[in-house]
Amino acid sequence: MNAERFPMNWEQAVEWLRQQPDKAQLVADCYYDDPLPAAAARYRASEEWRAISEMLRGRSGEALDIGAGRGIASYALAKDGFAVTALEPDPSPLVGAAAIRALARDTGVAIDVCEEFSERLPFADARFDVVFARAVLHHTSDLGSACAEFYRVLKPGGVMLAIREHVISDKADLPAFFEIHPLHKQYGGENALLLGDYVTAIRNAGFADLCVLSPWASAVNYAPYTRASLQQAVADRFGPLRVFVRGLLKVPGVWPGVRSLMTATDRRPGRLYSFLAVRPLI
To answer: How many domains does the chain have?
Structure first.
């Protein structure tokens, strides 16, 4: 990485963001605010996590949280009853392994922390029941190898959730994504891929029953919007008709159609997709 072009590392970039008075809401939406235990509890109470919990309904056992960051998902997984291992290569006390250890200590929630990269998981084959990765795949140096490692450490029948992955429609859109990302100019570590790149890597790793969640299909992707606030934002675009439109969106069948239209016309560089897939039993 060019230190002159990108003067900060990830920890410094997040600390810089936290110091910007006009970015307070973004900091809170990204769960970069303190105290960390409160931020983690807020994440677990979010519509995003409630949607994830529904996807994991009926599952138990060991969960691997890859690229765990501050540990908010590790905390939520542990509170939902999983035995959690958090994989995080950055040792940072703000956005890395040290932060996760402090979170576990301060909340009394058991989280085992491992400082390693997703492309070389230091775990035995078929160990985990769940592999969870929030905003991880677009950061990997080798997407195919990372997906193969996720598959390797999952038990047959285990599930992988790779959520909130940045997608572009064309590789020429990447500079536009870098331009709008609030931190890329500071540390230079962001990326976005074609939807097909993710799908191909996941399928080539051996996963089956792949479910692709489009940007507006679930709070997993459109958070920090809630369903209610997203519907309000859509209605507000109609000015004087906003009250009528807000009521219309509550009519059964209308909202799913609107979401489908939004997805079909959405070409924002960096829009978010999520992926749910299973390691076959055989």
So the answer is: 2
246 lies in the same domain as 109: no
Phi/psi at 86 (5° precision): -100, 120
- What band does 4 get if pLDDT is binned at 50, 70 and 90? low
* Cα–Cα distance list, 127 to 1, 102, 154, 162 (Å): 34, 26, 6, 18
Instruction: Give phi and psi for 200, each to the nearest 5.
Output: -65, -45
pLDDT tens by residue, 192-228 = 999 999 999 999 999 999 999 999 999 999 999 999 9
CA separation, residue 254 to residues 57, 225, 244 (Å): 27, 19, 13
State the virtual CA torsion across 13, 16, 21, 23 in degrees, nearest 10: 10
Shared domain for 257 and 273, answered yes or no, is no
pLDDT, tens digit (0-9, with 9 covering 90-100), for 133-148 = 999 999 999 999 999 9
Domain that holds residue 237: 224-263
Please state whether the predicted TM-score (pTM) of the whole model is above 0.90. Answer: yes
Q: Is residue 14 part of a domain?
A: yes
| Together in a domain, 177 and 242 | no
